[in-house]
Amino acid sequence: MSDSTYVVRRKPDRTPVSLDVGPRLKQLDIELTERCNNRCIHCLINRPLSDSSAQADEMTTAQVVHILRQAAGLGCAQVRFTGGEPLIRTDFQDVYLYARRLGLKVSLFTNACFVTPDVARLFARVPPLVPIEITVYGMTRESYEAVTRSRGSHESFRKGLDELLACGAPFVVRWVVLPPNRHEIPEFEAWAKTLPGITAGPAYVLMLDHRSRRDDPEKNRVIDTLRLSPQETLAFLARDETKYRHGMAEFAARFLTPPGDRLFHCGAGHGVCIDAYGRVQPCMGVRDPALTFPLGFPEKTGSDGAQAETPAGPDSENGGLTLAQALDRFRRLKTLAAKHPLYLARCARCFLKGLCEQCPAKSWAEHGNLDTPVDYYCQAAHIQARYLGWLSENESGWDVVDGPERIKKWVHALSTEGNR
Amino acid sequence: MTSMIDLEAVCARSENVVAREIEEEILIVPLAAGIGDADDDLYTLNETGQAIWQALDGQRSLKDVAALLAARFNAPGPEIERDVLGFAGELVRRGILVTRP
């Protein structure tokens, strides 16, 4: 029975994991609330902090705990808490600790405004095992609050960040590129380099999505005006020309082939997302009622989330689904085919599909179905392909039959150039 | 490097870790800061480690654990004792196991 090493260190986040092996539930996302202290000009989900109706409908602590227990039982390694602003929930610390005590890693998306000394100390004492992701909206009060439209939010954000720094809690920052803050990107990058743990540079949110609940056409019109043009998107992506080209070479070789008519090419079907009201979806963006199901919760769930005895058994709790049942339903998404004629004529035949951010979630937000192409993402992909020489000015990705061969030649030429 | 530990020691799982069994593998997840070499590391056990881990109940001495496993696997006692000592030393050093008086 002898072996030389008894314990193996693992960093699962940094190791590619096949979706076909491993635990049954790969990823759990929980939107703890849709409410937020900020009123960001671009936000695709937020509802007001004071929205008592939304708050009343939110899952209870026990219901969140019930979901976490099921997820752990399905082998899930990580939960992502998002919102809205998840830290506005008064039970956040309880929920966080419960997840960690189940052995789940916790990923958290936050604006940091509600990071109190207590919360920061908790993250330092019981680390999430995944760096907290903090979204930054501006380097000055003026730019920050021009985005958040919430007075005092910049000061709260800075205080929250200082608390995390003082405790040594792990975090990374990302920046949403918007008109009020575009001019501050160099300053942001320089600042981000001074933060501990930011080794690979900060992340950016560049493409802005429509409201995923399709609840505010006026807000969608505003979002349209905030979006970068295709030319501006390209200029941003290629601002470091060498890095951009090499990044694209690595990416293109792996992902750029015509996808056919299958709609879901992502991890959908391997994870589940829970909205703030206890409904399960295949991804946070796909809020199509046809793919959204209520979860079942025992009527009497103990404060620790333990299931009460239910005569009908765990698979038919109050008529809602268990996570396992939802997962079984979502696995069938992999075979779902597009029907929209434009999708079939364009996206299904386009070798740039992997570069384009078009997906069922984007189609849902933009058009209310899963397969209408979204020009905004299509244009951003095409301008890059033309810039890189994969397409001539008059060609589209679905016109050419030798797209993958063109990319192979381009990658080869780039590596030859690099070796000179 | 292993901690100074002998066969008379009694080891228990630290309250600062959570052990999960996923896909027939034992995954050790740090709960508190300061476990292991980096805060985001997780750990799995090899086959030998799993057998020893499951036999550690916080009551038996390492000598008794080794005797139990030697009988179960019909393996030479000294070899098993070496494994148990190596395993316990490594995990105590990482903070995954604690010694009990």
Polypeptide structure, described:
The complex is a heterodimer of chains A (420) and B (101). Chain A is 37% helix and 11% strand. Chain A is α/β, with parallel strands linked by helices. Chain A has a domain at 230-262 and 338-420. Chain A is globular. Chain B has a single domain (10-100), classed as Arc Repressor Mutant, subunit A (Orthogonal Bundle), CATH 1.10.10.1150. Helices cover 39% and strands 24% of the residues of chain B. Chain B is built from 3 helices and 5 strands. In chain B, helix 2 crosses helix 3. The longest helix of chain B has 18 residues, at 77-94. Chain B is globular and about 35 Å long. Chain A binds chain B through residues 1-3, 5-13, 22-23, 72, 75, 77, 100-105, 124-127, 129-130, 170, and chain B through 18-20, 22-23, 27-33, 36-37, 39-49, 51-52, 69, 73, 75, 79-80, 82-83, 86-87, 90-91, 94, 96. Strand 1 of chain A pairs antiparallel with strand 4 (42-45) of chain B, so a sheet runs across the interface.
